[in-house]
Amino acid sequence: MQILSQPPSIVVAGVNCGSNIGSDILYSGTVAAATEARLQGIPAIAVSAHSGANYGLAAEVGARVAAQVLERGLPPDVILNVNYPLEWNGEFRLTRQGLRAVEPLTDYEALALGYVSISPLHINRTAHKHFDHFRLWADHLGASQVRNGV
Fold first, then answer.
1. Residue 139: in which H helix or E strand, if any?
2. pLDDT tens per residue, range 72-89
3. Which domains does the chain have, with CATH numbers?
4. How far, CA to CA in Å, does 34 sit from each of 10, 12, 66, 123?
5. Helices H, strands E: what count in the chain?
6. What is the pLDDT of residues 43-60, one digit of tens each?
7. What are phi and psi for residue 81, nearest 5 degrees?
8. Which of 74, 73, 83, 78 is nearest to 115 (CA)?
9. Separation of alpha carbons 61 and 67, rounded Å
10. Is the model's pTM score more than 0.85?
11. What phi, psi does 138 have (nearest 5°)?
């Protein structure tokens, strides 16, 4: 079944109620929707807002980010994860995915300080910097042992 005569120029998933930061992005439906759009070749952003935030302003922020994506584009394997704070200081911060603590330059820190957090996320989640470590595992497992059911 086809709904549109041509693909959309961009997909904006959200505004989601509740932040999608740190490990929350692993099971976020909003981030998953943006990821699926990107897998279909459509530039996409996920927009979420802190519970109790001004969702109208969060939507305006999402529209501003979407306009930048349409103007400047995205790499083919990247989506943007945009999070709006409880009280916005009027500024944006490019961030990395954080942990559950407030660390410098992370989505957690940005929201805690009142910034809109913009995190570029890779579609390919391969742990490239650890690849050599796991290559050793594969070498120790040995293909002949796997074939013999060991």
1. helix 131-141
2. 999 999 999 999 999 999
3. 11-147 (3.40.1210.10)
4. 10, 7, 12, 10
5. 5, 5
6. 999 999 999 999 999 999
7. -105, 110
8. 83
9. 10
10. yes
11. -60, -40
